[in-house]
Amino acid sequence: METKEKIYNKLLKLVKKDNVKVNERLKDHLYTKLGGKADFFITPTTFQEVQNVVKLSNEDNIPFTLLGNGSNLIIKDGGIRGIVINLKHLNDISSEGNTVVAQSGARIIDASRHALKQSLSGLEFACGIPGTVGGALYMNAGAYGGEIKDVLDYAYVVDKEGNLVKRLASELNLDYRTSNIPENGDIVLEATFNLKPASYEDIKATMDDLTFKRESKQPLEYPSCGSVFKRPPGYFAGKLIQDSKLQGTNIGGAEVSTKHAGFIVNKNNASTTDYISLIEHVQRTVKDKFGVDLEREVRIIGEDSD
């Protein structure tokens, strides 16, 4: 890899100077408030800029990482080498007929609110999901009986070669909290959702009910990475953790929530190491007590600190 100065100068030819940061603290940009620094933190404002950065990464063999708002992600304390790209400026949401078109940096919550304003039904389930549209597609996000695959029509992505490609929902292998987006190396730029006309009052009533359920059950008063574990077949992860008497257990500043056992909260300036150690402790304990393997829903990336 070339020197940081050379890479920086190349990036300035592709992206506006204000949107290229060096040694940026990732914890300042993430929902979890965890993580070390990025060598280069890029916030493009156009699809073409994203394509150009991907092509530079390929040509100069620079490591490349796509980052949403980290609502389902833990970054290690050593940070991330190479280029980290964040699409927060690609956040437009529009609608035409029965479709809502949302760029990947928009919050999926805001897409659901836009649908409400247009009296379009189908995205109510997403009214409390804290991630971006891109992140929601990446993991086929879902809640309260709905998920992205129920409403997605197609998406525009940048493939790993830097080409702009249209992907139909049927091509993304959307399944329980998974898709083929990561294995294909795609970067979601925009998603089109196919919705159904309905009464504004009915849609709002459903969203209000789901919001109440979420706020009454989830520990929203602390930073967290959301639901840490996938639902094991035949069980509920939160119930297994609760029955293992793990609520309130802490390592450093990380704690198994006393409000919802499926959440681990950043209660007191936790490090990523605290978080990972507590996740592993929960997995071991549940395995010992019930013989069930808890698979992480949250992703862990980055390097360990020195």
TrEMBL record:
Localization, UniProt: Cytoplasm
Cofactor: FAD
Active-site residues, Swiss-Prot/TrEMBL: 177, 227, 297
Cell division as UniProt keyword: yes
Gene Ontology BP terms: cell division; cell wall organization; peptidoglycan biosynthetic process; regulation of cell shape
Record InterPro entries: FAD-bd_PCMH (IPR016166), FAD-bd_PCMH-like_sf (IPR036318), FAD-bd_PCMH_sub1 (IPR016167), FAD-bd_PCMH_sub2 (IPR016169), MurB (IPR003170), MurB_C (IPR011601), MurB_C_sf (IPR036635), Oxid_FAD_bind_N (IPR006094)
Keyword line: Cell cycle, Cell division, Cell shape, Cell wall biogenesis/degradation, Cytoplasm, FAD, Flavoprotein, NADP, Oxidoreductase, Peptidoglycan synthesis
Protein name (database record): UDP-N-acetylenolpyruvoylglucosamine reductase
Species of origin: Halobacillus halophilus (strain ATCC 35676 / DSM 2266 / JCM 20832 / KCTC 3685 / LMG 17431 / NBRC 102448 / NCIMB 2269)
